[in-house]
Structures are given as structure tokens and as C-alpha cells.
Design a protein that fits this description.
The protein is α/β, with parallel strands linked by helices. The protein has helices at 20-39, 46-55, 78-81, 83-100, 114-125, 140-153, 218-228, 247-257, 272-275, 312-321, 332-338, 341-349, 353-367; strands at 43-45, 104-108, 132-136, 161-164, 172-179, 188-192, 197-205, 208-215, 239-243, 258-270, 286-289, 292-294, 305-307, 310-311, 325-331, 376-383.
Length: 401
């Protein structure tokens, strides 16, 4: 990794180019970020760059109007692959409804709205519709897409679906869902040297964004010590990785909201000893552009997703520190099998052999290790729930954290 320019001209051959409108959004966003760099003496943290690239109002990836999800977007999430995923989530919600006496769901970052719609469809089949379905969505564009989908698919329930700008101010009882939310929280990047720790910064060279370095500040150094600890001694010189300094505040905010119920976190990640494995020398940063994965965050800024894998040990520790119980940790495959995905296939495919076959193929994408089955994890943080959750009855790997 060096200071060489990494601009749009380095787009690999054969990759589709954004249209003129998307390119204009990207140009304006780059100008905005450049202004921030100039105002901060020539460089900003990668965390700040990622924040603006994804969430800058009106310009960032999740704030502008490009299509992000599904075959016509940049990546495909589990709910986009199959209704089986959401039906299994709905089953877990039903258990929490029974345990808490509250059948309210709060979804964080609902994307295209497909998971919300499929969860509601499944609960409707069983006459167990929630009293409220709350969606915390900061993107005006995504809100509009969610409203359109949910109005078309659940017109008689739309008055019980509410969009929020912030977390509820009163205690929430029920289920909080966060599917592929943690990976999009901005991260800091660091480089371990023999005698120091450097922070990867974003600067400008030849009028394009580039990597630069500075000695890590005291607060970041403390986070590195907290996360890596003794693991630092085994990492090779030049080891690059990510530190998500926003996770504690995120989990704290959820802990203050949850009165009784469960927070279900679904994302790709590792326990800490795997996240900071000595052979993972370039970190976990992943960018998504038109179903192509790569590690260059400076290509078409604002027109591609930027993510990092999740350190689930840190998530669990934060949950514990803020008074939550770490009730379960499993691979996606383990969770879906525990929730009876095979029964769900029969339930939804019993009227057609063709449909049953299609569902079985979709299940393979959700379950197989080479697909999403092991890469994605599920964690449950709870409060005031004494009963074990069904989603972890076959495989609960808390001991690996």
C-alpha cells in the first residue's frame, strides 16, 4: 500500500461505468470531501472519509438515489436471495413476542424493504401480525423505496408501519433487527510497525485521493491495545487492519432503548482471534460495485459501497458492559437450521414441486459454507429474557468469542 493515486481511471477493464447522473453525484461528493481535506491541513481519517462517502446528505452512497440492492444493484443481501431468510427471522421474532408480551419490531436500516415485507407476510400467514413495525432509516431515498414496497404489498397494515429519524426515546419492548448494519459503520485503519502504530489517512495527490500515514493518536492507541492486546506481538511488521471505534456507542444506544426483548445482529464477521489473524495482513475492507468486490475505496466515490467485517468479540463485550446478555452467537447456517429452514421450505413449497426446488436452491446459497452460511454470523443481545433463544439451539458458539 502506498501513496500512489487510486482514481476512477484505474477502473478495471470490463467494469460497467455509472451513468452521467451518478458520475455527477460522485464529482460533487469528491469536491465536498476535498474541501474537508483542505480544511484539515491536507488529510482526514479514513473513518471520516467513509462516513462522508456513505452518508453525506444528498450525495453519499446511502443518501443518493442509486439502486443498491439486488441483481441490478451493487450487492445482494440474504433477504434479497430468498424469503426463507426472513421467514426464519419471523419465527425468532414470534418466540420473543411470547417471552416479552410485546409484538413490536424495530428494524435498523431496512434497505429495499424486502425483509420487512417478507417478515410481515410470514407473520400474517400465522395470524400473528405485530402491533407496530418501526423502521429507523436515515436515507430519504431508501425510505421512499420502502414506503412504495410496503404500501403495495401490505396496504392494510401501512398505518402500523412507522419510519423513525432516531431511536425511540422510551424503552422499547420486542425485537430490534439489524441486518448488514454493523459492516457499514465507518472504521479507522491502522498499520502496525516494529516501533509504532500508524493510522491510515486519506489525502490528495495529483488531484486524486490517496493513502497517507500519521502516528496514531492516544485514543486510537488505547482502542488498539484494547482490541489486539497480546495479539499485537504476533502480527508481522506492516500489518494493516481496521478498528471500529463507533461500535461501543452504537451498542450503548441500543442498550439504552431496549427494555425487554432481543437485539438480533446479522452480518459478516469473525470472533476477535480470527479477525486479527496474523495472516489477515491487509485487513477486511471490502467495497461493492455492480456485484464486484474489491478493496479500493477511492473508485467512484459515492457510487460504491464500502464495508468492513465485524469484530463480534467487541460487539459482545460492549453488550455485556452495557447491561445486555449475550444470548447467542452462531453462523448464519446454524441459526437458519435452528429456526427450522427445512420446515419453512416445505411450508412455502408444498403446492408446487418447481417452487420447492427453487426454494431448496435458494437455501443452498444461504446455508453452504462457500456461499453465505459460514461467512455471515448472527448474534443475539437480550434483556430480561431468561429462556434460551430458538435460533441458537443447534449451534451456540459464544465460547469462541
Amino acid at each position: 500500500m502506498n501513496n500512489s493515486q487510486l482514481d476512477d481511471s484505474f477502473l478495471p477493464n470490463g467494469w460497467p461505468e455509472p451513468d452521467a447522473i451518478a458520475l455527477d453525484y460522485s464529482r460533487r461528493l469528491k469536491e465536498f470531501i476535498n474541501g474537508e481535506i483542505v480544511a484539515n491541513e491536507g488529510q482526514i481519517s479514513f473513518e471520516r472519509f467513509m462516513q462522508m462517502a456513505l452518508y453525506q446528505p444528498g450525495l453519499g452512497y446511502y443518501s443518493a438515489g442509486s439502486r443498491k440492492f439486488g441483481k441490478d444493484g451493487d450487492f445482494t443481501t440474504a433477504p434479497e436471495i430468498s424469503l426463507l431468510f426472513s421467514a426464519c427471522i419471523a419465527r425468532q421474532c414470534e418466540q420473543v413476542f411470547e417471552l416479552t408480551g410485546s409484538n413490536t419490531i424495530l428494524e435498523l436500516g431496512a434497505g429495499s424493504g424486502v425483509m420487512a415485507s417478507d417478515i410481515l407476510s410470514d407473520l400474517r400467514r400465522k395470524s400473528n401480525m405485530p402491533d407496530k413495525y418501526l423502521i429507523l432509516e436515515t436515507s430519504a431515498d431508501l425510505r421512499d423505496r420502502q414506503r412504495l414496497r410496503l404500501h403495495n404489498e401490505h396496504p392494510d397494515f401501512i398505518d402500523r408501519i412507522h419510519w423513525l429519524d432516531n431511536l425511540p426515546t422510551e424503552h422499547f419492548n420486542g425485537v430490534i433487527l439489524a441486518n448488514e448494519v454493523l459492516d457499514a459503520i465507518p472504521v479507522n485503519r491502522i498499520k502496525l510497525g516494529k516501533d509504532d502504530i500508524q493510522e491510515l489517512m486519506v489525502g490528495r495527490e495529483f488531484n486524486e485521493f490517496c493513502w497517507q500515514y500519521r502516528l496514531a493518536g492516544n485514543e486510537l492507541m488505547m482502542e488498539v491495545d484494547n482490541r489486539l492486546g497480546e495479539l499485537k506481538k504476533y502480527c508481522p511488521d506492516g500489518y494493516v487492519t481496521e478498528i471500529n471505534c463507533m461500535i461501543p456507542a452504537f451498542i450503548h444506544s441500543l442498550s439504552e432503548v431496549l427494555g425487554s426483548g432481543s437485539i438480533l445482529l446479522l452480518d459478516y464477521g469473525y470472533p476477535r482471534h480470527e479477525f486479527y489473524h496474523t495472516q489477515r495482513t491487509e485487513g477486511t475492507l471490502v467495497c461493492h460495485y455492480r456485484h464486484r468486490s474489491h478493496d479500493n475505496p477511492f473508485i467512484y466515490v459515492g457510487n460504491q459501497d464500502i464495508t468492513a467485517f465485524v469484530d463480534f468479540t467487541t460487539v459482545a463485550q460492549c453488550g455485556h458492559d452495557y447491561g445486555l446478555d449475550v444470548k447467542g452467537y452462531s453462523s448464519q447456517a446454524g441459526f437458519l437450521m435452528s429456526m427450522g429452514i427445512e420446515e419453512v421450505i416445505k411450508e412455502y413449497g408444498d403446492d408446487s414441486k418447481h417452487k420447492a426446488l427453487r426454494l431448496s436452491q435458494q437455501a443452498g446459497q444461504l446455508l453452504l459454507p462457500g456461499q453465505m452460511g459460514e461467512k455471515f454470523k448472527v448474534m443475539a443481545l437480550t434483556r430480561n429474557l431468561k429462556t434460551e433463544l430458538d435460533g441458537f439451539k443447534l449451534a451456540n458458539n459464544i465460547h469462541r468469542l
